[in-house]
Each structure stands twice: as structure tokens, then as C-alpha cells.
Amino acid sequence: MPQSSEAPEMAAVPAKAFYPAEASHQQVYTLHPNNPYIVFNDAPKVARLQQLFPELYWPKSQVGEVDLH
Questions:
Q1: Which of 29, 34, 53, 58 could be bridged to 62 by S-S, CB 3.0 to 4.6 A?
Q2: Sequence spans of domains, the chain
Q3: 29-53 core/surface letters (b: 16 or more CB in 10 A; e: else)
Q4: 1 or 48, which is more confident?
């Protein structure tokens, strides 16, 4: 089958609503850094993002808490 050189049409669809996660789901990465899911899935991604975008990374001492409720 021949390949098309044209990019497919795409459109952004705005979200209708935002529902914040429950309190038990906030700060999971910070509160449970040794959780196997965090260790194998999230921590490597965060480390890579810190390498790629060091100017956007804020040390924990500079991060404030946000109350979403």
C-alpha cells in the first residue's frame, strides 16, 4: 500500500470539565517514592524530564502545596 506524504487531519477538542483527583491521590509520587509502580514507571520519566528541561525543574524546597478542594 503506498504511503501518503500528507499529515492526517487532527483537531483539538476542549475538555468539558475538570475533576480534581481525590485527596488520597494527591502527592502520591512524593509520599510513596519507594512504591514499585513509582520506582519502575514514574521515577525514570521524572528523572529524564529533569535532564531534558532543567530550567523547568523546581527543587522540592521551592514547590508549594496546592489545595484543589
A1: 58
A2: 26-58
A3: eeeeeeeeebeeeeeeeeeeeeeee
A4: 48
